[in-house]
Amino acid sequence: MVKVLHDMIRPSLVTFRRGDTISNHDVVNCSDSRALINHCYWPIVSDFINILSHKTIAKMFMQNPDLIKQWMKFVEYLTGMNVNSRKLLTHVEFEPKSYYTAFPVELEAASSPLWSFINACTVLKNVQCVQNMISGCVEALERWYKKVDSKPQRGEVTFHLPLHRHLAAFISLAVSQFDIPLEQVVPSNDLLRSICEDLFHIQAAICEIRAGRWVRNGSQIRSQVRLYVECHFCNSMQDLDIFLLQVCAMFLDPDVFITTMIESFGLLHWFKFGLPVVSSPPSFDVSTEVSMVEGMLMLLITLLSSRLHLGLSEQEILRQEMVAQLCMGDKTHNKPGQSHNSQEFEGTLSELADYRGPSLRVDQCSKASMFPKILCGRMNLILFMCY
């Protein structure tokens, strides 16, 4: 099945570029591939996911280095797809729709099988399988960076790094479920630094887009940011990126880590107190620098406070999500925990919210809803300060 996926996307492969640098890496072209646009890959991926639900087959797959290498090679083709370039002088005439393809492709063809691998490892309780998958991810990332051989460029961004997110997910699994020391599964410092640069580049680009620096790219670039942080995607994208940055922070030299973050946000002159050196047009970028500083500091707070993959229990995750939703407005009974099937749902909900019955009036009819208690409001203040 993995071979069929290779054959399906091979005609859509193009050379990956960073700026004017041509690499040896091939990446899928999301704008012209009918196989990707029409989701022709999904029947194969769906069957692959169903097969991985069988413990014997999943164990055989994760104990075979050749099969792991083939899967990681497929994920490599998706890593770096749909690169966006910032428009500086003129507004984009026709907004590209390639992100309509790129986000579902990563979610369906890369992330869905990833979580199937994670579930299989959890059920099998096999440490060797987890270590094999981590080794496969590290080898694939080393190949990817050797082929790309260039740093991320200012004015360009791709939100799609599924290979990096595979590594983050398996490291999280190894530490949380198998008590494997983090030192045994973390790659070399050189690889961590390269990973760190790419992940910071995404976070800096998001801050630039929110600050209005990418306004000439149209609404589609803001839509990509919304998808990246949206609840259906963030579990497989943003959350894993933040965790991998936290891992980088633990093992890289603090000066290297902070300097990399500051350089990614283009704020080195802010913290060296020298003359500002910014890209053109100067007046446009200088006016948004305060927003960039705020965004960088908020990212730093998030890295220091987020515990989603750092020991937070399922009940605590459910509790935080309920608080965040209830404090934005009253919700119907099923909304505060619609993404969870937790047995603690009712108890947690009754602790955080009170019930308000439906009201019938001549001019309107309102549904029954849950509204937050005072305790919930205090917790939301803490969450707001952290996120």
UniProtKB/TrEMBL annotation:
This is E3 ubiquitin-protein ligase. One of its GO terms (molecular function) is zinc ion binding. It catalyses: S-ubiquitinyl-[E2 ubiquitin-conjugating enzyme]-L-cysteine + [acceptor protein]-L-lysine = [E2 ubiquitin-conjugating enzyme]-L-cysteine + N(6)-ubiquitinyl-[acceptor protein]-L-lysine. Ubiquitin ligase protein which is a component of the N-end rule pathway. Recognizes and binds to proteins bearing specific N-terminal residues that are destabilizing according to the N-end rule, leading to their ubiquitination and subsequent degradation. InterPro entries: UBR1-like. The keyword Glycosyltransferase does not apply. One of its GO terms (cellular component) is cytoplasm. The keyword Membrane does not apply. Keywords: Metal-binding, Transferase, Ubl conjugation pathway, Zinc, Zinc-finger. Its EC number is 2.3.2.27. GO terms for biological process: protein ubiquitination; ubiquitin-dependent protein catabolic process via the N-end rule pathway. Pathway: Protein modification; protein ubiquitination. Belongs to the E3 ubiquitin-protein ligase UBR1-like family.
